[in-house]
Specification:
By secondary structure, this protein is α/β, with parallel strands linked by helices. About 45% of the residues lie in helices and about 15% in strands. The protein folds into two domains: about 180 residues, Rossmann fold; about 100 residues, Orthogonal Bundle (N-(1-d-carboxylethyl)-l-norvaline Dehydrogenase, domain 2), CATH 1.10.1040.10. The protein has twelve helices and ten strands. The structure holds 1,4-dihydronicotinamide adenine dinucleotide. 1,4-dihydronicotinamide adenine dinucleotide binds next to helix 1 and helix 5.
């Protein structure tokens, strides 16, 4: 594989493009929003600079990485030479089905089509194409240049060969791939989201407060971040939508989202991205301050 196209230049897309370009692949980054492409290149440059400062990347490798990256707002030309397309656009079923239809129509016949979706069925996405055996989940973790895991998700029709190719490619990126099957939440979110939901229920029922719950999980379970802080980091809207996928997919009450989570999302308190969730976030400050509504 030589040419990788990444669809969507947001939080995940820019990280995925960064990692492929750094490992020698020619990368085309596609986003409908030209401003998102500008921001993506600025973010990649800043993150590469950080690697140079840390001594983990040479200045020459940084320049070569940036030279391997091109951007476009035109999906059709952007995928026309791809060996692999990794879709990392907004998490919305209808949008992804439409994008996969276009990826299938305009990319070379033998190209593999991957999605970074956190929760949408790979099998459903594959059904929007004429090559379901070549469709697979490639679920990177945020921040992509730092996190080692790639959850490789086999759809119902994904071929053994495509799966082996994506496992090998993930290792080539210096990541650790884990192969999983296509059921709601895959492995990562099926285990993580009920834990986050339970932490919110624990707060909702007054068992402890925000700092108490996060401290128990950090110090008691050696988690680097408490579940409420992690929920703010992921985005409370994203957590809610994944819980709904689990609830709909399995039909079990244990996945029902906590009413407090639903209320916070309805009120627009989505975590880091809106400046407030369980904590408040001030740009430039690393202090963790409990949000006014949760102060003792
Ligand atoms: P984001 O909102 O930061 O970026 C999405 C980008 O997609 C935007 O720049 C938007 O302009 C672009 N886009 C929308 N429609 C498009 C189209 N038709 N063609 C091309 N680009 C289009 O979203 P984020 O957080 O990067 O998420 C992307 C995917 O990665 C989602 O499927 C999400 O579930 C998944 N994911 C997110 C993680 C996270 O921590 N944010 C972690 C793992 C997976």
């Amino acid at each position: 594989m030589q040419h990788i196209t990444v669809i969507g230049g947001g939080t995940m897309g820019n990280g995925i493009a960064h990692v492929f370009a750094q490992h020698g692949f020619e990368v085309t980054l596609v986003d409908v929003a030209p401003a998102a492409l500008e921001k993506a290149i600025a973010t990649i440059t800043r993150n590469l600079d950080r690697q140079v400062q840390k001594g983990t990347l040479s200045e020459a490798d940084k320049t070569a990485t940036l030279a391997r990256l091109t951007t476009t707002s035109d999906l059709k030309s952007g995928v026309s030479k791809a060996d692999l397309v990794v879709e990392a656009a907004t998490e919305n079923v209808n949008l992804k089905l439409k994008i996969f239809g276009e990826m299938d129509q305009f990319s070379p016949e033998n190209a593999i089509l991957a999605t970074n979706t956190s929760s949408i069925s790979i099998t459903q996405i594959a059904a929007a194409t004429k090559r379901p055996a070549q469709v697979i989940g490639m679920h990177f973790m945020n921040p992509v240049p730092v996190m080692k895991l790639v959850e490789v998700i086999r759809g119902y029709a994904t071929s053994d060969e495509v799966c082996s190719q994506i496992m090998a490619l993930s290792s080539q990126l210096n990541k650790i791939p884990v192969e999983v099957n296509d059921y709601p939440g895959f492995v990562a979110n099926r285990i993580l989201m009920p834990m986050i939901n339970e932490a919110i229920y624990t707060l909702f029922e007054g068992v402890s407060d925000v700092e108490g719950i996060d401290t128990v999980m950090k110090l008691g379970m050696a988690h680097p971040m408490g579940p409420l802080q992690l929920a703010d980091f992921i985005g409370l809207d994203v957590c809610l939508s994944i819980l709904r996928v689990l609830h709909d997919g399995f039909g079990q009450p244990k996945y029902a989202p906590c009413p407090l989570l639903v209320n916070m999302v309805t009120a627009g308190k989505l975590g880091v991205k809106t400046g407030e969730g369980f904590y408040t976030y001030t740009p430039g400050s690393k202090d963790l301050v409990v949000a006014p509504g949760f102060k003792k």
